[in-house]
Amino acid sequence: MKRSTRVAVVGGGIGGLTAAIALRMAGFEVVVLERAAELEEIGAGLLLAANAQKALGKLGLAEAVGNLGTPASAGEIRSWRGEVLASIPASEIERRVGAESAAVHRADLQALLLRELGEEPLRLGFEVQGFEQDGAGVTVLLAGGSEERVDLLVGADGLRSKIRARLFGPAAPRYAGYTAWRAVAKSGQDLLAWGSGFESWGRGQRFGCAHIGKGRVYWFATRNAPERGKDGGPGGARATLLTLFREWHRPVPELIEATAREAIRRDDLYDREPLVGRWGQGRITLLGDAAHPMTPNLGQGACQAIEDAVVLARCLREPDEAGRESIPDALRRYERLRAARTAKIVKQSRRIGRIGQLENPLLCRLRDRALAMIPSNVQLKQVEEVVGHEV
Ligand SMILES: Cc1cc2nc3c(=O)[nH]c(=O)nc-3n(C[C@H](O)[C@H](O)[C@H](O)COP(=O)(O)OP(=O)(O)OC[C@H]3O[C@@H](n4cnc5c(N)ncnc54)[C@H](O)[C@@H]3O)c2cc1C
Known about the structure:
alpha/beta, FAD/NAD(P)-binding domain, five-stranded parallel sheet, 18 strands, about 35% helix, about 25% strand, binds flavin-adenine dinucleotide
């Protein structure tokens, strides 16, 4: 691929920013077209599992990202009363896969990626409305009528991707049947012993938390609910959650209590059936949530976007075996390399969500008992398949 190749990345989320960094490192000229006038700082944490850290290592960013937050603690699942149902020590995962996982604040990660990319390639307030492609390149059509001519286009424009809709039709994503609240408790460190993050499962609802550095604790909560529900009343989400989780083990209600009301964000959760065959067409491809949105039950959405970014840049940089690969061929090769892994994780995340969100009391009791009986080597093997991967 000639190095004067110009790439447009649509979307400046974690996937788009990482792709832009990887492509620029590979020698391409990159422009990131982001519709927001300012990049939103989501007040939540993010688990970057060992597979993402390994991929970030290929960009020279693993150490800096690791220093942003804390090493992730044990993968521990508890009942709503607090009994440990399953526990995989982080040290054991690290020993098996050869890298640490990190728990970070999203805003810190975004700031680091922005610093690494620099301001020049980022165009804020550029909303992509469509594209036209011909044999020589792609014309990106922007709101307001302007255009950008590039050699190839990467749609990293998230769950409701316009690029994906133009390529594969406007199908809506699939609502998972439950909603999630997320927040960072700035004064939560005394409530959660260092290194003791957990996820607890109840009936139709779950709660998880972890340290993310600088004394901050990230927590999330889920609840089966109709789509597009709202937290009414003067207490908003905080009051709703204090009611829903009042009887749960320490420090669940205490962490909610310690969080400012306006710091709590609510999002319905979605995924899509994996695309079969290809993610793109000609000089256009997809990346991250635009390609494979998944429920967050494995904490892998951003991790997979980061893996995509590294593989995409590599496919475009490396010639094929004959040494003469066209841009469309390189993009199809990228998609082939990524499709099976991401499809498997989408499906696994969906399955875990179904089990975790069970509501029937008898099924929940059976689930908890079954979970406690899974031998730790089997649990470890399952985790290793996801987080031990190296792109
Ligand atoms: C509750 C919850 C918890 C999660 N926890 C984790 C976790 O612990 N670990 C993990 O790895 N993942 C996690 N995820 C998933 C992760 O957040 C996503 O997979 C990841 O952020 C997707 O990044 P992205 O860049 O592909 O898309 P996005 O972050 O959605 O970025 C898309 C960008 O494109 C822009 N855009 C959209 N349309 C246009 C347009 N037409 N023109 C220009 N710009 C446009 C948007 O403004 C946005 O900035 C979680 C998700 C949720 C909901």
